[in-house]
Design brief:
Chain lengths: 636, 72
């Protein structure tokens, strides 16, 4: 608890201790002959003790011309009740209202701290080695290219590459992934991960404020300032609601008794004219207590905030409450194939039609391609696995768009596509397999072909079925690959629709067509890996970039950033959005419903001050507790 | 130009009041106050001096809600 909260707690406790015996006396439960005026004076002690700040704020509000707020409501209602001789009720309302305020401030502070603990990735210092000694410096002052030292148990403060040392890193705060990652020299490490075991020397590659941890924190902190439609609705609502309620209460206090006095209808029910007016003024005061808008005003932003925090603890960064709202209405998802459904790394699948054993075909291909940095060349070298002796390769000639011809141990060898084989006059057997096909020729004879394909992510099919279960009706895969590859991948993961052979600009057109086909109120999400698809991410209702920690453009363009490349997180993000919006709707309906019902009861004289305060504070506490449920999204 | 300031305020509705007060201050193009993160994001009009504008914003906020603070 903060100082302010502690002070309020003591004021509430002290006032309650004074209030209880006084209330028992005033109700006649404890007999103690005390005149009314003295009782009033005694009741004013706990009243002022617990409510002086509310009174002060209400008068300041009147002075500054902004009359209608909850302080004003409470002041008028309690003073009205006390003036009518309902001392106990008047003081109790103020006391319980403050209990509600204290609870609210405590709950909000608690979730604020919870969420910042979840996102506790801000590094406080960096270690620099100077003359064999470690000195702590402000990470802001570390220049790019400096070598920093990260000891076991410390956070990596700045993005960089490992120079020296091996260790395992806990990246849970960044990616939500609980398994540690092993790193060694040459590996890129991201700030915000925690060094678990060994000493690491890291050469920084970024400034502190450009590093992953700083950028994520900035993104999360800014998220709350992009407000959702329902959030804006509530603040506009509060703006009009309070004055309307105040005028309604005034009307309630004046119109019916005036009507009775003038016409004489119903006058018989009251002993005196004073009793008539007193009854209606008290009803108006009760009305004011009920009408306090706190429950809705606090619980809606709290729900969004908790959901944003819960999502970031799962490695899902949502850039604003408005996107939670959009996510909850997603009915169609378009995927970029490479990097989302497939891993985007190429692996040799098989070797076909080779007169030699598999290893020899790979050996030839690996050597001929040894100077290439193309991902396909690298995948062949990886599949070969053996040592590539550069000395065996001479006269390397790269034929653009066809392949490579070279001399291996002095014998002509060629690796490339069908065109290259035709050009060299080698008879080859065409391949019916799906994927990239590399033909091998050695000494003028055909050596078979190597089939290279992208790999599916292990959980891709499960992610697709989870999306369906979360209520996504339409799934479309977009890819620049050939129709054959697209068809195979789509079938493997269970997606029925695909668009193949798309250029990056075609993807925007495709998404635009899908947007046009979407129903009103339905939202389209596009999921990409952030490479070349920034325009599409921006165009979709919700752009989701995955595994995008390294890519600035993707973080900039996307609305939702998945910190690892786990496709199941897409469905999770949608479910977090749906849960949050469901809770927001529950709270709006519940709080306003109960208030409206109690307002009607109060107007007809069927609700007393105790019901009124229960409708105000009780509803607020329930709504806040409900809002905090948004934080629990781990097993969603 | 956009800048972000730390604030202190006790209730969600008070934060809304601060936002409205800040929006009405001359030199402020737009403003978003988040009660949850206790941050005020201010977008200044072209040519406005942030220090000067923020002093006025702080005064206006205090007028609208006595129990608040904008840390400049």
């Amino acid at each position: 608890m903060t100082q302010k909260q502690k002070k309020l707690l003591w004021r509430i406790l002290a006032a309650a201790v004074l209030f209880v015996p006084l209330y028992l006396i005033s109700e006649g439960i404890v007999r103690w002959p005390v005149p009314r005026w003295a009782l009033l004076m005694l009741f004013l002690v706990p009243y002022l003790l617990v409510g002086y700040d509310i009174l002060r704020k209400a008068f300041q509000g009147i002075k500054n011309g902004s009359v209608f707020d909850e302080n004003f409501l409470m002041t008028v209602a309690t003073i009205g009740a006390i003036a009518l001789g309902e001392y106990g009720e008047g003081v109790a309302v103020m006391l319980l209202y403050q209990v509600g305020e204290l609870f609210q401030s405590y709950a909000v502070g608690k979730s604020r701290r919870n969420i910042s603990a979840l996102m506790d990735i801000r590094p406080d210092y960096a270690n620099i080695e100077e003359n064999g000694e470690l000195t702590r410096v402000d990470p802001d002052e570390v220049a790019v290219g400096t070598v920093i030292v990260v000891q076991p148990g410390e956070k990596v403060p700045i993005d960089g590459v490992v120079e020296e040392g091996t260790s395992s890193l806990d990246t849970a705060a960044l990616t939500g992934e609980s398994l540690p990652v092993t790193v060694g020299p040459g590996r890129e490490v991201l700030s915000g991960s925690i060094n678990l075991s060994g000493l690491l020397h890291i050469r920084t590659t970024r400034e502190f404020d450009q590093s992953t941890a700083s950028r994520i924190l900035e993104l999360v902190e800014n998220a709350a300032s992009r407000k959702a439609v329902s959030e804006n609705f509530i603040s506009r609502f509060a703006h009009y609601y309070t004055p309307i309620v105040c005028y309604a209460a005034l009307a309630l206090a004046v119109v019916p008794p005036l009507f009775c006095t003038l016409t004489g209808i119903g006058l018989a029910n009251y002993a005196t004219l004073g009793a008539l007016w007193g009854d209606w003024v008290l009803r108006a005061c009760t009305f004011l207590v009920i009408s306090c808008p706190c429950a809705v005003v606090i619980s809606i932003p709290l729900s969004f905030f908790a959901a944003l925090g819960g999502a970031s603890s799962q490695g899902i960064l949502i850039k604003g409450s408005n996107f939670l709202e959009s996510l909850s209405r997603v009915t169609a998802v378009a995927f970029d194939k490479t990097g989302t459904i497939t891993k985007g790394n190429f692996v040799v699948e098989t070797v076909h039609n080779s007169p030699w054993e598999r290893q020899k075909a790979l050996e030839i291909a690996a050597h001929v391609e040894c100077h290439s940095t193309h991902p396909i060349a690298r995948s062949i070298m990886e599949a070969y696995g053996g040592h590539v002796e550069l000395g065996r390769v001479t006269d390397v000639e790269e034929i653009s768009g066809q392949g490579v011809v070279a001399r291996l141990d002095g014998v002509t060898a060629a690796v490339g596509n069908e065109k290259l084989m035709e050009r060299l006059g080698v008879t080859f057997s065409p391949c019916h397999h799906v994927g990239t096909v590399i033909h091998v020729a050695y000494d003028g004879t055909y050596g078979g072909h190597i089939v290279i394909a992208d790999q599916l992510k292990e959980s891709a099919a499960q992610a697709v079925s989870q999306l369906r279960r979360s209520g996504v009706k339409r799934l479309v895969m977009l890819t620049g690959d050939s129709a054959a590859v697209a068809e195979k991948v789509a079938a493997q993961v269970g997606i029925k629709e695909y668009r193949a052979a798309l250029l990056p600009s075609d993807k925007v057109d495709c998404v635009e067509r899908l947007l046009a086909e979407n129903g009103r109120g339905d939202r389209l999400a596009f999921v990409g890996d952030g490479i070349n698809d920034a325009p599409v991410l921006a165009r979709a209702d919700v752009g989701v970039a995955m595994g995008a920690l390294g890519s600035d453009a993707a973080i900039e363009a996307a609305d939702v950033v998945l910190m690892d490349d786990e496709p199941m997180k897409i469905a999770k993000a949608i479910r977090i959005g749906r849960k949050c919006m469901a809770i927001v709707r529950e709270n709006i309906v519940f709080a306003l419903g109960v208030k409206l019902a109690c307002l009607l009861l109060a107007a007809f004289g069927a609700a007393n001050m105790w019901i009124a305060i229960a409708a105000d504070v009780g509803v607020m506490i329930l709504a806040v507790l409900n809002a905090i449920r948004c934080l629990f999204v781990k097993n969603l | 130009m956009k800048k972000s300031y730390k604030i202190d305020v006790d209730c969600a509705n008070c934060a809304n009041k601060m936002e409205e007060a800040a929006k009405k201050t001359p030199g402020v193009k737009d403003c978003a106050v988040s009660f949850m993160t206790l941050k005020m994001k201010v977008e200044f009009e072209d040519g406005a001096d942030p220090a000067q504008v923020m002093a006025a914003v702080r005064d206006n906020c205090k007028k609208a809600e006595s129990d608040c603070e904008v840390f400049l």
